[in-house]
Structures are given as structure tokens and as C-alpha cells.
Description:
Blueprint: H1 2-12, H2 16-30, E1 33-44, H3 45-53, E2 59-66, E3 80-92, E4 95-97, H4 102-134
Antiparallel strand pairs: 1-3, 2-3, 3-4
Amino acid sequence: MAEEGILEEAEFYNIGPLIRIIKDRMEEKDYTVTQHVYRVLQCQEEELTQMVSTMSDGWRFEQLVNIGSSYNYGNEDQTEFLCVVSKELYNSPNGLSSEPSHKAKNTEEDLEEEEQEVEEEAEAEAEAEEKGAANP
């Protein structure tokens, strides 16, 4: 209730940054975490790295359990693991959703943009070095 009052005052005095903060807080209340979904995946030692690195967005690594023998009987016997992963479900007006709030989405998008910019800069530097090496 207090946030609605503060929002009214901020809009009356036209304080833009405060209006955005209050609206974000009000939106966060609508997107509270209500459930976690867990999955248990079985994999062999050689598949573990690829499986963890290619997990879909929103899935988080929780636990790794070694279920194989500690003895090596040959090349074909690999250690087996159970990999526990989880995903948060948010309570939204349309029911449960795996989508984070608007604020969390913006943060993720900003990080992705920064990573892309760093990659582009690194590629440009590598190309410049290659051109410099090719033309002594």
C-alpha cells in the first residue's frame, strides 16, 4: 500500500527515476518464486562437461552424485553420475511461468550484450594482429 502512495507522489512531482524504481518493486511483488522444478539426469564421465555446458537457459546445476564404481576395469567402463538440475517457476497473472521478471530479463540482456561486445573486440584485435603479421 505504501508503494502506491509513493508512486502517486513521484508521478505528481514528475520524479522519473523514483517512478521506475517503484514500478519495478511493484512488478517484483507480482513475480515471486513459488516453486522449483528438479530434474535428475544420468550421464557418463565423458558426457558430463558437455551436458552441463549446454543446459538450457533457466536451468541451474544443483548437485552431482557419483553412482559408478571407483574401480577401473578397462576403457569401456566409465564412471556414471547423476546430475541434479533445477529451474525456478514464477507466479504470474497467467499462472506459473519460467520467465523471470522484467528487471531480471533486462539484467540478463545487458550481460549478453556486454559479452557480445567483448567477443567482437577480441575478434577485431585478432584480425588486426593477423593483418600486421601478414604485412611486415
